[in-house]
Design a protein that fits this description.
Radius of gyration: 24 Å
Order of helices and strands: HHHHHHHHHHHHH
Distance between the termini: 12 Å
Number of strands: 0
Number of helices: 13
Number of domains: 1
Mean pLDDT: 81
Largest sheet: none
CATH class: Mainly Alpha
CATH architecture: Orthogonal Bundle
Low-confidence stretches: none
Oligomer: single chain
Length: 307
C-alpha cells in the first residue's frame, strides 16, 4: 500500500508543474498589465514599478523566480491589494469557500446516494423515473442558471431565504449557495449510484445472500452497498473539482467574500500573482484530494493496488 501511495504522489508532481507552467504563460499572454489604469503612467514611473516587481525581466527568468518562491511557500505580493500578500488573501478567504464546498459535497453525497439506491431498488417505478428525470435536469442546467431561479423562487417570491450574503446573518444565507453547488453533483451521483447498484444487485453473491432468507435492507447494507460505492468513490475527485470551480461563479452571484470573488477580481484587474496563486492553490488541492480518493480506492479494492 505504501508503494502504491508513493507512486501516486510521484505521478502528481509533473501534473502540478504542467498546470503551473500553463497558468503562468496564459496569465502573461493576456493583453494589458496589472498597472494599466485609465490614466497612463509616465514612462519612468511605469519602468520603476515594473523593475520593483521584476516585470521587466525575460519571461523564462520570471518563471524561474516564481518557481523558487513557490518552493519556499511564497506566492508573491498582490499587485492590486498592495497591503497583502497572495498567501494572506487566500488564508482569509478560503475557509469560507471550503465551508461552502464541504456542505455542498455532504449534501450531494447524502441525497445522491440515497436517491440512486432507492431508484435502483424500485427500478422501472415512478420513483425511478422521477430520479432519472431530475438527474438529467441537474446535469443539463449549469449553476449560473440554477442560482437566479432559486433566488427568484425562494428569496423574491416566497421570501423564505435571503437572496445574497450581505445584509443577513446566520446559516440561512448559506442555504441557496449550497443547494446551487450541490444540485449538479446530486444528479451525477444519483445516476452513478443507481447504475452501480443495479449491476451489483444482479450478481451471483447477491442472489446467494437472498437465497439465505436475508431481507432486502440487510442484503443492501451488508453485501451490495460497499461494492456499489466504488464508482461513486472514483467520481469524488472530479466532483470536488467541479464544486471548487463552480464556487467561483456561485460566490460571485451571491456576493460571498470567498476565494472565488478574489479570483474573478484578480482576472479583471490583471493581478498576475493573485490569479496564479489561486490557480496553483486550487490545482494543488484538487490533486491532493484526487490522491486521497486513489488511496481510498486502493484500500477498498485490493485489485487496484496489485495491478
Amino acid at each position: 500500500m505504501l508503494r502504491y501511495t508513493l507512486l501516486r504522489v510521484l505521478g502528481a508532481i509533473p501534473t502540478l508543474l504542467l498546470v503551473i507552467a500553463l497558468a503562468f504563460l496564459m496569465v502573461h499572454a493576456a493583453p494589458g498589465g496589472p498597472f494599466d489604469d485609465e490614466r497612463a503612467l509616465p514612462a519612468d514611473v511605469a519602468a520603476n514599478i515594473e523593475r520593483a516587481y521584476h516585470l521587466d525581466e525575460a519571461l523564462p527568468k520570471q518563471f524561474v523566480r516564481y518557481l523558487s518562491g513557490l518552493v519556499r511557500g511564497d506566492l508573491g505580493p498582490s499587485y492590486r491589494y498592495r497591503d497583502y500578500t497572495v498567501s494572506e488573501l487566500i488564508g482569509t478567504s478560503f475557509p469560507l469557500s471550503m465551508r461552502l464546498g464541504a456542505l455542498a459535497m455532504a449534501l450531494a453525497i447524502t441525497v445522491g446516494v440515497g436517491a440512486g439506491t432507492f431508484a435502483a431498488l424500485k427500478q422501472g417505478s415512478y420513483l425511478d423515473r422521477w430520479v432519472m428525470a431530475f438527474s438529467m435536469t441537474g446535469i443539463s442546467i449549469p449553476v449560473f442558471v440554477f442560482a437566479p431561479v432559486l433566488v427568484l423562487l425562494f428569496a423574491v417570491k416566497l421570501q423564505w431565504l435571503p437572496a445574497g450574503w450581505t445584509g443577513t446573518a446566520g446559516a440561512s444565507r448559506l442555504v441557496l449557495p449550497v443547494i446551487t453547488l450541490a444540485l449538479p453533483q446530486i444528479a451525477y451521483i444519483a445516476r452513478l449510484t443507481r447504475a452501480s447498484m443495479i449491476d451489483v444487485l444482479g450478481r451471483d453473491f447477491i442472489r446467494t445472500a437472498r437465497a439465505q432468507g436475508l431481507s432486502t435492507l440487510t442484503v443492501v447494507r451488508l453485501h451490495a452497498f460497499k461494492p456499489a460505492m466504488l464508482p461513486v468513490l472514483s467520481y469524488m475527485g472530479p466532483a470536488i473539482a467541479a464544486i471548487l470551480t463552480g464556487s467561483v461563479v456561485v460566490e460571485e452571484i451571491f456576493g460571498i467574500p470567498g476565494l472565488g470573488q478574489f479570483f474573478v477580481r484578480g482576472a479583471l484587474n490583471r493581478d498576475y500573482t493573485l490569479v496564479l496563486g489561486i490557480v496553483v492553490f486550487y490545482a494543488t488541492l484538487i490533486i491532493f484530494l484526487n490522491l486521497i480518493v486513489d488511496v481510498l480506492y486502493g484500500a477498498i479494492d485490493p485489485r487496484v493496488r496489485h495491478r
